[in-house]
Amino acid sequence: MAEPCALCGATWGGRRGTFEGKELNFCCDACGTFYGLALGEVKDSTGWPIVDRLFLDQVHGLEAEGWAEHAGSRLEFHVEGLADGSKVTLFRPNGPPQRKSST
Ligand SMILES: [Zn+2]
């Protein structure tokens, strides 16, 4: 049984990539590359030293809605990139990071 892709949740593929000291599963090279780029964008906009988890909830072609979490805070963002995952063309947080409720 394949682990889902850490970026898009697809359950096919089986590429591995290491980010923030954790080995993650990706469906394709584009997802693996783009995950690293999106991590950088999140760090730039939040000042977080590391990102614990990042995921794209909804992918519409080259655009996606995603979120990232670190130390109980969550940043939601809109991101656009190239089809091969080699470049982020637009990164826009949907506001400042929010504390996650503990419920
Ligand atoms: Zn993927």
List the keywords.
single chain, 103 residues, alpha+beta, 5-stranded antiparallel sheet, two-stranded antiparallel sheet, binds zinc ion
How would you sum up this structure, described in words?
- The protein has 103 residues and is of the alpha+beta class.
- The chain has 1 helix and 7 strands.
- It has one domain (15-99).
- It has one helix at 29-46; strands at residues 15-19, 22-26, 53-60, 63-70, 73-81, 88-93, 98-99.
- The strands form 2 sheets. Strands 3, 4, 5, 6 and 7 form a 5-stranded antiparallel sheet that branches.
- The longest helix is centred in the middle third of the chain and has 18 residues, at 29-46.
List the helices and strands and how they pair.
Layout: E1 15-19, E2 22-26, H1 29-46, E3 53-60, E4 63-70, E5 73-81, E6 88-93, E7 98-99
Antiparallel strand pairs: 1-2, 3-4, 4-5, 5-6, 5-7
Q: Please estimate the helix content.
A: 10-25%
Q: What ligands can be seen in this structure?
A: zinc ion
Low-confidence segments, ≥5 residues, pLDDT <50? none
State the order of secondary-structure elements, H for helix, E for strand: EEHEEEEE
- Class per helix and strand makeup: alpha+beta
Question: What distance lies between the first and last C-alpha atoms, to the nearest angstrom?
Answer: 31 Å
Please count the beta strands (DSSP E, at least 2 residues each). 7
What percent strand?
Answer: 35-45%
Summed up, the domain count is 1
Query: Overall 3D geometry?
Result: globular
* Radius of gyration from the alpha-carbon trace, in angstroms: 13 Å
Mean pLDDT: 94
Continuous helix count? 1
Sheet with the most strands, sense and barrel status: 5 strands, antiparallel
